[in-house]
């Protein structure tokens, strides 16, 4: 059996490849693209028996690759949170796996693949229509994050663009917004509320007290017990420590 693995997270790709070789020792992985462009090239130059594809890639939704290239083989989608597509996949004999991938469920998906006959696969036009519909659903379900904050200063109201925000910190039940220029404004949101309203690609919850933007992080110092200490710009009124448990997530976030 031959396959293509479309996955932009290297650890996830390695884990899936390892599980597949354990379950199917004779499997041949033809390509492991991690972008839409790479997936298009791999699909055009190979004819795999089966494709595994993450839904969200660094440069967009993988549906775009399948819209550009006609694929006749089955596809098993992997997803961490795109449950909006699950019913459509099932109806069209396309399987899905929630990440982190469970070995038993992967084995079940492979059994389902072997049981498929060519006549049970969706027609090309139907499949392409499905891809188009799912891509539209994906765009419609894309989270909308804050683009600005309306803050008060003395007797004035000011709209602060999200690009100007360096970090937020909480003290004595008051949340403060700090701009890149060093201005401080109180905001009504709690840190927990901010965590759901801010783009996780741009802001990281360092601890209970600080939510920092990627552009505000200067130097990162190693601390005792596996903790990290952040030197933010502008300077913070308190030391910013990241716990050992969150340190790994912070490194992955900065390296994404």
Oligomer: single chain
Largest sheet: 5 strands, parallel
Percent of residues in beta strands? Answer: 25-35%
Low-confidence stretches: none
Question: Percentage of helical residues?
Answer: 25-40%
Total tally of structural domains: 2
CATH architectural category of the largest domain: 3-Layer(aba) Sandwich
Distance between the termini: 32 Å
Number of strands: 17
Counting helices, strands and paired strands, the structural category is alpha/beta
How would you describe the shape?
elongated
* Mean pLDDT over all positions: 85
Characterization of this structure:
The protein has 256 residues and is an alpha/beta fold. The protein has 2 domains: 2-140, Response regulator (Rossmann fold, 3-Layer(aba) Sandwich); 148-254, OB fold (Dihydrolipoamide Acetyltransferase, E2P) (Beta Barrel). Helix content is 33%, strand content 30%. The protein contains 8 helices and 17 strands. The chain has helices at 10-23, 36-45, 63-68, 86-91, 103-115, 124-140, 191-197, 244-254, and strands at 2-6, 28-31, 50-54, 56-57, 60-61, 75-79, 95-98, 148-153, 156-161, 165-171, 174-179, 184-187, 203-205, 210-213, 217-222, 228-232, 240-242. The strands form 5 sheets. It has a 5-stranded parallel sheet with strand order 2-1-3-6-7. The chain is elongated and about 70 Å long. The model has no long low-confidence stretch (mean pLDDT 85). InterPro entries: CheY-like_superfamily, LytR-like, LytTR_DNA-bd_dom, Sig_transdc_resp-reg_receiver. GO terms for molecular function: DNA binding; phosphorelay response regulator activity. The modification 4-aspartylphosphate is found at residue 54. Residues 2-114 form the Response regulatory domain. Keywords: Phosphoprotein.
């Amino acid at each position: 059996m031959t396959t293509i693995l479309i996955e932009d997270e290297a650890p996830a790709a390695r884990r899936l490849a390892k599980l597949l070789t354990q379950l199917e020792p004779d499997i041949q992985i033809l390509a492991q693209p991690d972008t839409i462009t790479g997936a298009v090239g791999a699909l055009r130059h190979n004819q795999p028996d089966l494709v595994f594809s993450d839904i969200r890639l660094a440069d967009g939704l993988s549906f775009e690759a399948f819209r550009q290239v006609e694929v006749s083989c089955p596809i098993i989608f992997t997803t961490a949170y795109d449950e909006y597509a699950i019913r459509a996949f099932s109806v069209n004999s396309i399987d899905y796996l929630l990440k982190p991938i469970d070995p038993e469920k992967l084995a079940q998906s492979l059994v389902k693949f072997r049981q498929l006959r060519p006549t049970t696969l969706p027609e090309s036009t139907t499949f392409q229509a499905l891809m188009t519909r799912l891509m539209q659903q994906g765009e419609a379900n894309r989270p909308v994050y804050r683009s600005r904050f309306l803050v008060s200063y003395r007797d004035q109201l000011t709209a602060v663009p999200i690009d100007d925000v360096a970090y937020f910190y909480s003290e004595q039940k008051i949340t403060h917004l700090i701009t890149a220029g060093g201005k401080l404004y109180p905001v009504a949101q709690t840190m927990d509320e901010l965590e759901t309203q801010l783009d996780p690609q741009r802001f990281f919850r360092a601890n209970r007290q600080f939510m920092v933007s990627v552009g505000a992080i200067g130097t990162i110092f190693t601390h005792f017990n596996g903790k990290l200490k952040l030197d933010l710009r502008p300077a913070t009124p308190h030391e910013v420590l990241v716990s050992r448990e969150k340190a790994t997530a912070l490194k992955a976030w900065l390296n994404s």
